[in-house]
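Hi W., the LLP complex you wanted:
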Amino acid sequence: MTPADRAPCPGAGTEDFHLRGGELWCEDVPVARLAAHYGTPLYVYSERALGTRLAMVRAAFGPAAHLCYAVKANSNLSLLQCVHRGGAGFDVVSGGELQRVQAAGLPTDGVVFAGVGKEPWEIEAAVRAGILFFNVESEHELPLLAAVGAAAGRRVRVALRLNPDVDAGTHAYISTGKKENKFGIALPRAGAVVEAIARERWLQLVGYHVHLGSQLRSVDPYAAALAKVIDFADGAAVRREGLTHYDLGGGFGIAYGQGAALDTAAVAQALLPVLSARGWAPVVEPGRYLVGDAGALITTVLGEKRQGGTDFLLVDAAMNDLLRPALYQAEHPIVPVVPRSGAGQLVDVVGPVCETGDFLGKRRELPPCRRGDLLAVLGAGAYGASMASNYNSRRRPAEVLVTGGSARVVRRRETYAELFAAEVDLHDTFVP
Ligand code: LLP
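Structure:
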């Protein structure tokens, strides 16, 4: 039953964060109640929003596709379990992320492992775990992979990450498919790498991988990259033999309150006919698209300050909790949790960290806010908690997962003792 006073929340990107009686709710829970119970800063996630996005990607790419959630977007163990329940595997980029999948008690046979620099122990752990395949992006990995395969007595499945030199039209720091980026293997060099793989009895080439960048809003780069990969594969028989997968990466963009999210169905429509003609199963690695809109960062107003012609709203969340505005000039919608009536004001929403780059939003129109009021930074489920730090010796936020009318803590707030734990009771002296 939908309550009559229910309305969409501007900028939310999902109906699971919505307004009832003007106040922000997550699913069937008032966000203000969560903040009162758990304190702030607080990450609040909607399980249903995550499930809905997962189902959308599944519907777009069909049952033959492998969905590999990019763990880096949000590596919380409980969210990994939700992703698994939704039928997806994982894209990991470190031995630590693989350990998270294992610590969550989840199968590793649907894991793909990317990264420009993999350490031998990471490769060994992943081979032991029996992952789906490695995405190889540097030539020096090949002898390492082959040696681990030889020692284990099994061929290691690899996909070659190609750098197709395609502009993803996204922020420079999150663009990865241009030739000047460190990622993948440039096409002019890739033919020799395929031949090296073909010569190595402990390696098996299963496909090609590209990942063009993050927060893409257009189908065109995906189509352009596939066209270049097809051209490359058709260049010599050895480049086509035995291929079973095409990993088109992640990067599916969300709206952040401006414009539209990437049309994932349109990406699938553009790519699937080409892939099925070749018998290549699609692999997709969405991170942000699945969890971004499913999370909000809730923060409390500490005070107001007017200085140099700017109205600052000081809040208890900061760049250590959500780095994206400082690092990428990212703009997240910010809304009051329980709005006051009155004329709107133009404010800079800033945290307590000692950096001028510590802001959550600049020149935002907000209703009057007083000390103790709550704000929600929307679209914060991806690259929020996973990039949080203890800078300024701040404890990272607690995280709660809402399912219907109830919530449970999925990461408790750290204690200060935990912040110092690795620095006390040390008995090591090294004299080289
Ligand atoms: N696959 C690979 C190989 C990746 O490197 C990434 C992200 C993904 C998949 C997932 O991309 P997504 O679907 O989430 O866009 N911290 C930045 C984003 C960095 C993305 C790094 N790689 C941000 O907050 O915007």
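The pocket of LLP is lined by residues 70, 72-73, 91, 114, 174, 211, 214-215, 249-252, 285-289, 324, 328, 382-383 (CB under 6 Å).

W.
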